[in-house]
Amino acid sequence: VQLQASGGGLVQAGGSLRLSCTASGRTFSTFGMGWFRQAPGKEREFVGSVSGSGSSIWYGDSVKGRCTISRDNAKNTVYLRMNSLKPEDTAVYYCAARRGAFGSYNYWGQGTQVTVSS
Predict the structure, then answer these.
(1) Cα(94)–Cα(100) distance, rounded to whole angstroms?
(2) SS (H, E, C) the chain
(3) Taking Cα atoms as reference points, which of 54, 65, 64 lies closest to residue 29?
């Protein structure tokens, strides 16, 4: 499966963004999808994930309460809505896919840059 992330950009602190990740193929609903981010000089961080059906969603501690993950299986797309953005949210955001709800992510998108100005 190929993943294409989009929606990043420059936003002021306190603002919002919605990232999208579109997948190729016809079995999108069988993949658990995840969002990760990596800031310069830092390790990759888990942002959140959603099961194939969309019924189960998990969030990383650093974004909990400020982010919403959703998916539209008819459009092969998963979304990450981020609110109340902070400068420390600045990072490259990646979407990833894995078969099922658990295990390693085998497929990664190219990343989209999010920059939050203070």
Answers:
(1) 19
(2) CCEEEECCEEEECCCCEEEEEEECCCCHHHEEEEEEEECCCCCCEEEEEECCCCCCEEECCCCCCCEEEEEECCCCEEEEEECCCCHHHCEEEEEEEEEECCCCCCEECCCEEEEEEC
(3) 54
Quote the CA–CA distance of 10 and 112 in Å, as a whole number: 11
Report, as an integer, the average pLDDT of 21-39: 94
Are 21 and 95 in contact by the 8 Å Cβ rule? The answer is yes
**Residue showing tokens 């990043």:** 8
Interval 33-49: pLDDT, tens: 999 999 999 999 999 99
Write out pLDDT tens, residues 66-88.
Answer: 999 999 999 999 999 999 999 99
The CA distance from 66 to 105, in Å, is 24
Considering only CA atoms, give the Rg of the chain.
13
Q: Which of 3, 61, 63, 6 is nearest to 33 (CA)?
A: 3
